[in-house]
Amino acid sequence: MSDGRSELLPLDGPLYGEEFTDLMSAFTFPGTSLRVGVAVSGGADSMALCLLLKEWVLSQGGELLAVTVDHGLRPESEFEAKWVAARLAAEGIEHHILTWKKDPEATGSTQVQARDGRYKAIATWCEKNKISDIALAHHLDDQIETFLMRLIRHSGADGLAGMSMLRQDGGLNFIRPLLAIPKDRLLATLRDRGWGWIEEPSNHKDSYLRNRLRQRIPDLARQGLRRETLARINHSLGRIRKNLEERTDSFINQRVVVNPAGFAEIDFSESAKINPDILSRALEKVLLTIGGGNYSPRSSKTGRLVAGLLGITEFKATLAGCQIVLFNDKITVVRETRKLSDVSLKSGSDFLWDNRFYVHIHKAMTDKGLVLKALGEKGWQQLCQESPQLKATTVPIVARYSLPAIFLGDKIITVPHLEYLDPAWIEKLRIKIRFNPKNKLIQHSFTVA
Q: Which end of the chain is more exposed for a tag (fewer CB within 10 A), N or C?
């Protein structure tokens, strides 16, 4: 959507097809047959989104699939999921119910576990149903509450920008078409169409910070801090974040090269001309891609790393599961060898090793005892003794130890990224390994409603 358009949206009244079509124009869908998913809890927000998406997808000649996750945290949750299924079936919408059970050994609050479990279950469901875009019903009131929560928790500028209309996670796009729409309009939309919804009891519990803030927003308005003002501040911060992310992506395109062997190199020539903030943001993305982590390092830690890199010619540090080496106007970022798992290989399996390397084992592979693990320093030395010509590889020494290698006992069978394969296995090894990190270096930049 064009910048500033959200400020022109009406603040009340039902949401109709033409306006929703304009909201959906913020997203790009595959050129093949349109297939969109929608998460539906049964609450007013998700029911309104499902209704609007049904009309929009139908106008596009596509297919809509709905999914509900039953957390089982309340006795009535199963009934509510079945009510949603019946209601959507009456509208001709395909609907699936997923179940989630609390792990008794998991840490963290039940609310956080349920949220993470819901996203994981939905992502698995989308993959199974060949869905690349799943719609979530977060709206303007949610965005304002998120802004206030993060303000209380002293979040940085990026955090205060709130939720993006589009978030990528691997090959799945989470889209939020309603971020510029107040909840009152969603309620008006349901009433206008004659659709019902379920009231979620937890939305009124004072034990949750979000609920307490929601109840106090009218007090803020009486003090002069109106919802529209909060939305405008949040929107401005979102535009700033979007601009910074686009500049960061431009820096990455110009100076960062990711090698198929799973390491990255950053051109650090004329470093005095590099904006430290942009470098810091680029490094956070590189560290996520190469380190395979689930979260970026704290900005304070990345800031210290950037301060150490600037103004000197040689530097070495570790952060976010990576080793960072500056030498000859080049920063090399490689995966550390610690916390790399060993995986026993099974025929016909596909998996992502260390959130970085995609592994496919042909179903005809029946050899027992094969294990995938990092090559390691000892493994590298063993290879050099068996095949001295490997010393001429272009893979930097610091990147070799964390390469995926297949072992049978202590014997190295193959290290694909060093083009090594034991001659005895040439005819029978049917395994593919390629660098395909969960965290892509460049994704869609922050999308402002």
A: N
Q: Is the pTM here over 0.85, yes or no?
A: yes
The candidate with the shortest Cα–Cα distance to 360, out of 371, 346, 344, 370, is: 346
CA distances, 256 to each of 265, 294, 339, 435 (Å): 6, 21, 26, 16
- Structural Rg of the chain based on CA atoms: 25
What percent of the chain has a predicted confidence (pLDDT) above 90? 76
348 phi-psi bin (left φ>0, alpha ψ -120 to 50, beta other)? left
The mean pLDDT of 77-90, rounded to a whole number, is 95
Query: Alpha helices, DSSP H only, in 311-411?
Result: 376-386, 397-400
Helices (H) and strands (E) in the chain, counts: 13, 19
pLDDT tens, residue by residue, 46-62: 999 999 999 999 999 99
Which residue matches tokens 């999914």?
Answer: 67
Q: Are residues 156 and 87 in the same domain?
A: yes
Structure tokens at 393: 């590889």
> Which residue, 287, 257, 261, is CA-closest to 436?
261
Token pair for 52: 């609007």
Range of the domain at 360: 343-435
For 388-446, write each residue's pLDDT tens digit: 999 999 999 999 999 999 999 999 999 999 999 999 999 889 999 999 999 999 988 89
373: β partners: 405
Same domain, 198 and 236: yes
| Closest by CA position to 143, among listed 18, 19, 233, 10 | 233
How many Å apart are CA 94 and CA 102, to the nearest integer? 27
Average pLDDT, the chain: 91
Q: How many other C-beta atoms can be found within 10 angstroms of the C-beta atom of residue 371?
A: 14
Give the three-class secondary structure for 371.
strand
Average pLDDT over residues 227-241: 94
d(CA 254, CA 267): 8
Of 335, 367, 398, the position where a domain reaches its end is 335
Report CA torsion sign: 284, 335, 122, 209: negative
Closest CA to 258 of 327, 351, 337, 333: 333
The DSSP secondary-structure symbol of 175 reads E
Last residue of a domain, one of 335, 362, 395: 335
